[in-house]
């Protein structure tokens, strides 16, 4: 669900919780819980406009996440090369 939220915000820009809930089986409260987790990770941030909360991506947070995932990916690639070398020898 969190990946879906990030994708939706990436494709459509800032959105309300009502818009983010459309097409899902979750309640607005369920979506809000996921958004709070993403906010705590620095991936999204919300703002209030009157009674409406609008959520959008936090580009800096995504850059940090991308760098971390690249690091993990490189480590896995290196581990797989070591495993292949061990198995083939």
Topology:
Blueprint lengths: L1 H11 L2 E2 H5 L6 H13 L3 E6 L2 E6 L1 H30 L1
Antiparallel strand pairs: 1-3, 2-3
Class of the largest domain in CATH?
Mainly Alpha
Helix content: 55-70%
**Uncertain regions spanning at least 5 consecutive residues:** none
Number of strand segments: 3
Walk me through what this model shows.
The protein has 89 residues and is α+β, with helices and mostly antiparallel strands. It folds into 2 domains: 1-57, Arc Repressor Mutant, subunit A; 59-89. Helices cover 66% and strands 16% of the residues. It is built from 4 helices and 3 strands, in the order H-E-H-H-E-E-H. It is elongated, with a radius of gyration of 18 Å. The termini are far apart.
Attribute tags:
89 residues, alpha+beta, Arc Repressor Mutant, subunit A, 3-stranded antiparallel sheet, elongated
Write a brief structural summary:
By secondary structure, the chain is of the alpha+beta class. The chain contains 4 helices and 3 strands, in the order αβααββα.
């Amino acid at each position: 669900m969190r990946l879906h939220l990030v994708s939706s915000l990436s494709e459509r820009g800032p959105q309300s919780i009502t818009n983010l809930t459309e097409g899902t089986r979750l309640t607005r409260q369920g979506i809000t819980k996921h958004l709070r987790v993403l906010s705590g990770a620095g991936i999204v941030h919300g703002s209030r406009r009157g009674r409406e909360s609008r959520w959008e991506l936090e580009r800096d947070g995504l850059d940090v996440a991308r760098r971390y995932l690249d690091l993990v990916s490189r480590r896995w690639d290196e581990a797989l090369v070591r495993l292949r070398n061990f198995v083939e020898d």
